[in-house]
Amino acid sequence: SPPTLNDPTLLRERMLIDGHWCAADDGRMADVTDPATGERLARVPDAGAAETARAIAAAEAAFPAWRGRTAEERGRILRRWFELMLQHQDDLALLMTREQGKPLAEARGEIAYAASYIEWFAEEARRVYGEVIPSPWPDKRIVVTREPVGVCAAITPWNFPAAMITRKVAPALAAGCTIIVKPAMQTPLSALAMAELALRAGVPAGVFSVVTGSATAIGGALTASPVVRKLSFTGSTGIGRLLAAQCAPTLKKMSLELGGNAPFIVFDDADLDAAVQGALASKYRNSGQTCVCANRLLVQAGVHEAFADRLSAAVAALPVGNGLEPGVAQGPLIDLAALEKVEALVGDALARGATATVGGARHALGGTWWQPTVLTGVTPDMRIAQEEIFGPVAPLLRFETEAEAIALANASESGLAAYFYAGNVQRVWRVAAAIEAGMVGINTGVISTAVAPFGGIKQSGMGREGSLLGIHEYLDTKYLCMA
Ligand code: ADP
């Protein structure tokens, strides 16, 4: 059954191209299902290359007028969009829980978080400064300006159906770019509802389009087009590599937020209760389906047993169920493939000698629920220590020395988030410097905010979202040498 919204027009079964709500050319539709019940919520267009080409043409046509507006005007429209998101927070959260599965409280939180990027970049629009550089020549002046890169594209994942879109669209629009979004087909309803609110806020036709349908056809058309000057992608490392290859012939600018394998280190001198709370927040939020989730919990020998006991007790108490039910902390995984991956990783660990102190199997609720799990006795050679789990499973690895912990933490191709808990101030600075990651949570498991730069190093991607850096991803630098 479809969700019952206060404003039913936020449930869109058409996609937005050039300011028009339209169907796929051949009329094909794809189902959007509720992962908690398996029932169909809605249908959205199953579009491909031809519809994408029209969205690109509309974005190209809309670009000159949009970049020609003052930054203040663009900021004001974004500000209205931000306010509409908060006005409709309940409806947007309900849509998200129904299509994605996360608990309603988390969905409400994500809408506020997603909106905060729009607010931030509405403000940043007016602060795109250039420079005047002292010239080495007596008869020439050097001026540097920043200009919008042009038509942009974004391909976004299902784990944060709202925030992963506003992180890209808000800075693009603030900078004066136009943008086409292809949302994940598990969660297109959030994207379409936000597009409706953007229209109401006054975003002109063609400036922001949403195309739903085939990932390969739409992604192929976006990456092949010479008109599209930039692609921003959040998703798996494998697809990120593929898109980078597809963007190579036209040498597009790229921002990539890819997979992580975050270490979460608990040293002997940590505040253990705080570390347990941090691990819960970092690991089990969104049922473990975030790219900054703790993926490997490295625990020093002296506190290993106490930490494992306290974490296991806390995890055993997590309420599991449909995210619409009050108090539920753990919803279902997004789909069967996600469940099977978690099952395979846990199975491999158990077969090689790990122990489940809590959980370790599918949940009695059936469907795509997995029991919140803690594993002890995990070793670096196990698949679960090497691959992104994307499920509610905390693998504990024991270590003896600080040097060993750092070596373990850095033994990964990923370098997105890392976390550690320690009390000694010298150790805090030492470890913070030694860890190979784009973001480090020190004595905290929650780091994301619109005002700080989000992004990774190594094979976790390139570029940053949020902060004053986030808008620069959508700007080119122009140097004027004036004789
Ligand atoms: P996840 O495993 O989190 O679903 P993916 O990288 O598979 O991550 O998906 C993230 C986004 O990339 C989704 O919008 C998905 O539809 C899209 N996507 C997947 N495969 C391709 C592809 N070959 N070309 C373009 N986009 C793709």
UniProtKB/TrEMBL annotation:
EC code: 1.2.1.-
Annotated keywords: Oxidoreductase
The active site consists of E257
Instruction: Name a Pfam family for this protein.
Output: Aldedh
- Membrane-spanning residues: none
**GO MF term list:** oxidoreductase activity
- Indicate the enzyme's highest-level EC class: oxidoreductase
Q: Which InterPro entries match?
A: Ald_DH/histidinol_DH, Ald_DH_C, Ald_DH_CS_CYS, Ald_DH_CS_GLU, Ald_DH_N, Aldehyde_DH_dom, Aldehyde_DH_Superfamily, Succ_semiAld_DH
Gene3D superfamilies per record: Aldehyde Dehydrogenase, Chain A, domain 1, Aldehyde Dehydrogenase, Chain A, domain 2
What protein family is recorded?
Belongs to the aldehyde dehydrogenase family.
Oxidoreductase among the record's keywords?
Answer: yes
Q: Which domain of life is it from?
A: Bacteria
Any idea where the Aldehyde dehydrogenase domain is?
A: 21-479
Q: Which organism is it from?
A: Pseudaquabacterium rugosum
Q: What is this protein called?
A: NAD-dependent succinate-semialdehyde dehydrogenase
Q: Which PROSITE patterns match?
A: ALDEHYDE_DEHYDR_CYS (PS00070), ALDEHYDE_DEHYDR_GLU (PS00687)
